[in-house]
Design brief:
single chain, alpha/beta, ten-stranded mixed beta sheet, three-stranded mixed beta sheet
Length: about 475
């Protein structure tokens, strides 16, 4: 048996050796195979003409070639055409309003962006997961747990009685302001301001948390000061806070805002501020709201989704099915993958059946809200028979901001939902009059420098210290 096996192996080796060596070299067929390769820029120019749109492809290298270019064109579908041409090379096309002259801008792929068509497809997919209140509640429970885990809230203590620093009050007539530094973890602080109504009484004042949009000025930006002052003038206790490394009192260099630390910090700030402010004897815990624009709109949706203490939400110009937020403070964790993959409209819908106002405009990624995202959210509110608790306002010629018109809508919504006193706040034109609000200088809102407060000796001064107390781990899953 052993001899037969050895003989067989020897024969096989003899056959494989010399015979293989004698095989003729294979010809190079690539010289004779059509690939129909063309410069990607050139193809995009043809696509623009074919579909009658503008495409800005300046970011694409001139020598980048695409094989079978014309075969990738879907003459019935522009978005699929752009995906077929761009995605294999790490690019995508983003729709921009262009001040009424819309165009597609080609740029490197960011995981936070999809095409509008894919946004619609994602919402269709998500909608298939629930057909009523029970199945939606089950989905919401999974999302809530995953969101908390993705931003690391399950790694830190649920409650933390940190130090609180308040500046002296600055009186502005109908309201007053105090700078605030709240220790959210040992040595790590949230920075903001508390706006008080001129007259207060026990348990009678709504609370509004105000995260800001992207601005180096943080909670000291004019837009945030205006709306907080008006909220206080209407009888609310308004609290603003700065995003990670922004604002008049940044704890760390602003460059660290664009890291994976930003999103966990921002959400933790809102949670700790709620813990803190809900202890005020003046606050009515049944009327607790949150509102912000852009990145602040993202934070408004996220916090409302995971915290039932929020009873009203106004996310502004950020609820999009195809854009999750391009900054690390919005999409720098696995939050968009919660529940096996989610989107801002689904996260926003977690507010149901609590009152919510959605504000959108024609100048950014919320331009399709009236046709796509709002009906999706309304359907989920319908599961609760709460269609009257979801409102939306759209500004077709508006831009990406929390401008005067959008603030008007927010003030009116707060007044209706909470029965606020607007006497003396409505001008002759029937609109809320902000002339009584005061915009303070940024430097004047630095609690350590001008607030009469001494910086604590144990405040963390290096970013690695923040990493340690947050238990943050790079690429944690």
């Amino acid at each position: 048996m052993r001899k037969t096996l050895l003989a067989t192996l020897s024969a096989a080796l003899l056959f494989a050796g010399p015979a293989a060596a004698q095989q003729p070299a294979q010809p190079d067929l690539s010289k004779y195979v059509n690939t129909f390769s063309r410069p990607l820029r050139e193809v995009l120019a043809d696509v623009a003409g074919q579909f009658g749109v503008r495409i800005n492809a300046g970011s694409v290298p001139e020598d980048l070639m695409v094989d079978f270019a014309d075969f990738r064109i879907r003459p019935w579908d522009l978005e699929r055409t752009l995906d077929a041409l761009l995605w294999p090379f790490g690019y995508n096309a983003e729709w921009n309003n262009g001040n009424g002259n819309p165009y597609y801008s080609v740029s490197r792929i960011r995981h936070s962006r999809r095409s509008p068509g894919e946004g619609q497809e994602l919402l269709d997919y998500l909608s298939s997961k629930y057909d009523g209140q029970a199945s939606w509640e089950a989905r919401k429970a999974v999302l809530k747990a995953d969101i908390r885990h993705s931003v690391g809230l399950d790694k830190v203590t649920a409650h933390f009685d940190g130090k609180v620093f308040l500046s002296r009050k600055r009186n502005h007539g109908r309201y007053s302001v105090q700078d605030l530094a709240l220790e959210i973890l040992p040595g790590l602080y949230a920075f903001g301001a508390v706006y008080w109504p001129a007259k207060t009484s026990r348990g009678s004042h709504p609370l509004v948390i105000n995260p800001h949009g992207h601005s180096d000025a943080g909670h000291a930006s004019e837009v945030v000061q205006r709306r907080c002052a008006m909220q206080a003038s209407m009888g609310c206790i308004a609290i603003s806070f700065s995003m990670f490394c922004n604002g008049p009192s940044p704890q760390f260099d602003p460059v660290y805002h664009h890291t994976g630390l930003a999103q966990p910090y921002n959400i933790l700030c809102a949670e700790r501020l709620l813990d803190y402010a809900l202890q005020f004897k003046e606050v009515d815990p049944e009327r607790v709201g949150i509102t912000g624009c852009s990145g602040g709109g993202s934070q408004s949706m996220f916090v409302t989704a995971i915290d039932d203490r929020i009873t009203l939400s106004i996310p502004v110009v950020m609820m999009s099915s195809y854009f999750a937020g391009g900054c690390e403070c919005e999409s720098g964790t696995l939050l968009p993958l919660s529940g096996g993959g989610t989107s801002n409209p689904e996260i926003a819908a977690m507010c149901a059946p609590r009152p919510m106002l959605l504000a959108s405009d024609g100048g950014d990624w919320t331009a399709l809200n009236p046709e796509i995202e709002v009906p999706y959210v309304q359907r989920i509110y319908g599961f609760y028979g709460a269609a009257d608790r979801i409102e939306s306002v759209h500004f077709p010629l508006g831009q990406h901001n929390y401008d005067f018109d959008k603030r008007q809508a927010a003030y009116a919504f707060l007044a209706r939902q909470w029965g606020l006193d607007t006497a003396g706040l409505i001008g002759p034109d029937g609109r809320f009059d902000e002339s009584g609000t005061v915009v303070e200088p940024l430097a004047g809102m630095d609690i350590w420098k001008s607030g009469g407060v001494t910086r604590p000796a144990d405040i963390i001064r290096d970013i690695d210290g923040a990493v340690a107390v947050m238990h943050w781990v790079k690429d944690a899953r």
